[in-house]
Amino acid sequence: MKHTFDDVLNKAKEYISNEQSLKLITDAYLLARDRHEGQFRKSKDPYIQHPIEVAYILAELQTSPQTIAVGFLHDVLEDTEETKEDLTAKFGEDIVSMVDGVTKIGKLKYMTKEKALVRSHQKILLAMAKDIRVVLVKLVDRVHNMRTLEHLPREKQLRIAQETLDLYVPLAHRIGMYRIKAELEDTAFKYLEPETYQSVTKEITEQREVREEDIKRMSDALKVLLDDHHVKNYEIKGRLKNIYSIVKKMQTKQLRINEIYDLMALRILVPTVEACYQVLGLVHGSWSPIPKRFKDYIATPKPNLYQSLHTTVVGIGGKVYEIQIRTFEMDAVAEYGVAAHWAYKESRQGFTSEKAQMEVSSKLKWYRDLLEYVEMDGESDFDPLSDIKEDIFSANVYVFTPKGDPLDFPQGSTPLDFAYRIHTEVGDKTVGAIVNGKIVPLSYKLQTGDVIEIKTSKQSQGPNKSWLKLAKTRHARHKITSFLNKKQRDDFIKQGIDSWDRVAKEERYNGPKLDDSLIESKFSKYKIDTVEDFYYEIGKNNISPKAAMNILSGDLDQKTTDEILMQTINEKKTNLTRQTSALGVIVEGLDNAKIKLASCCFPLYGDEIIGYITKGRGIVVHRANCPNISEHEMQRTIPLSWDTADNNHTYEIILTISSFNRNNIIAEIINVLNSMKVYIKAISSKEINGGTDILTDVRVAIQDTKTLTNVIVNLQKISDIYEIKRGTRWEQLSKELKIVNALLKVKLQARLTLVMLF
Prior knowledge:
Number of strands: 21
CATH architecture of the largest domain: Orthogonal Bundle
Number of domains: 6
Largest sheet: 6 strands, mixed
Strand content: 15-25%
CATH topology of the largest domain: Hypothetical protein af1432
CATH class of the largest domain: Mainly Alpha
């Protein structure tokens, strides 16, 4: 039966009397009719017939006038030229937000019935439907689409039917909408397995008369029982189990159709909970209950709010009957689920859509906590432990490619994260982004439901350092860093080539021609193996062109080179420039020196530092109090200082934390460091003092000593931390040696041997 707008309006008038509310419904219909003018469905019906049917079902469910209006308008943004701005001006943000939510859900591209992906799609759908009314409208929309599925090609019928069974049926179950769930199941099953559907339908039909007669006899007996015990205002009705659930029970439990007890069930409705238990006692006192077939869903409701008493008894004629006992309100919830709670109560003082939304969401466990997924078979309860660690709604946003493919990202992600997820080259060539048809800056924060399009250009110069602040995901930041490092390397190589060519011309260099084998033979001790590496080191001023020429010519061995380096430092020639290394360290009187930070004491900006001249490895920067620099080695040191104008580096250090060995203390340490945006490179801990205490070493990247002080102050606020020391590799190994020695109870000589070996 096809409905008209008048049918919708009359159905709404059964519970809505406010003229403004009825006008809202009428205005929504008129706009939808005008915008869909000239559009037709595959059934040859005018397109407006679909919104009318959706709105009618919503009116049957007694939803709010706003929700019915959305039923009329749910396709105008997707299928007409109506804009969000125009629609908002006419109907307000609340209605447009719901319409937009339904539109976005419709863009979800279902791809497979594979379990993991099905659950992912369910999660995305729920995340997009922040307003529970959006879920209602979308389910009702799917109901009518399934009713008209016969007009589509077989291939589309199968795809849509499977999508319905995998995605929308579980959703209907979760919000307790049994009637919609049952209709969607049966319709989908009819298209997916037509032969089985017809066979079961035929068998049920053949037995219907017998079963209905049995139900009538048992119903009459129940009426006599309840009347005799003065039960007031009750109602008894029968229920035929839907075809899909019958087939599933037959398959899972290996039963024949005549072995299914609840194929036909009796339902007793009473006004109060007290009356439910009274009736249960009367039923069990009159007929023998079957063991293990009683379930009390009133005392322990299902998470979708379903409440009822279920029992199975041997009744009239020795036949088995399932009897459900519930209040009238519980029955409404069982049939219509969340829609029963959402039913528009015009007369209720203070009723608003916001209050109703909060009321429903406070009751629905699935809506408060999307962590709880369930293996759906139409009968299952929730498993509260299912996927609890990974399905965190607030942690992710869900967006779409222009083709409709869904992607998830952490909160705060930007178009750059999206671009690098698509492909590294797309990310590197990004020049702009379009979100929902509008140009947005690269700093734009992605929102659930956004459709993202990335603009690229072959002329793009690629990422710059500012992109690292914009990207949220580790993947994108890694790709950006890799690009920047390669670009920096390329720049140094170019500088190295220019420097080499200039000096070679000045010095009239006529040595051997550069190739990889030559470079490897002459510079492998410096970890320089290719011509590219050679130019790179020259470009970074780690090796001077003149020194390289001497080495290539074989004029100097390493010892001579070290002596020349020492002599240069001691002489402090006035014609040499002041050099600032890439590490922010100033070397007075030395040009083109290779500089690196010591891995034993981890010097940090703000520390007093000295340089140690190594054999063949340039200058190593140590803290002035580093125990590795002995007095007899001081002649190989050079004074160094930090460049106060260049404090943009981070330096690796070790913090050694001694604390009581209690639960979560390491987690608290990590949380403090993360809150201060301190990058943790490594963390390890060991039990000491018989397990009572622990010693934790945290390797972090710190900008300067001031930051370090702040870090230590904040860590000391954690209870049960005894001491925080800035450690060194020497101190670490010494501690480890002491612990090992104590445990092994070695003798003094052995201990000295170990120290000497170290």
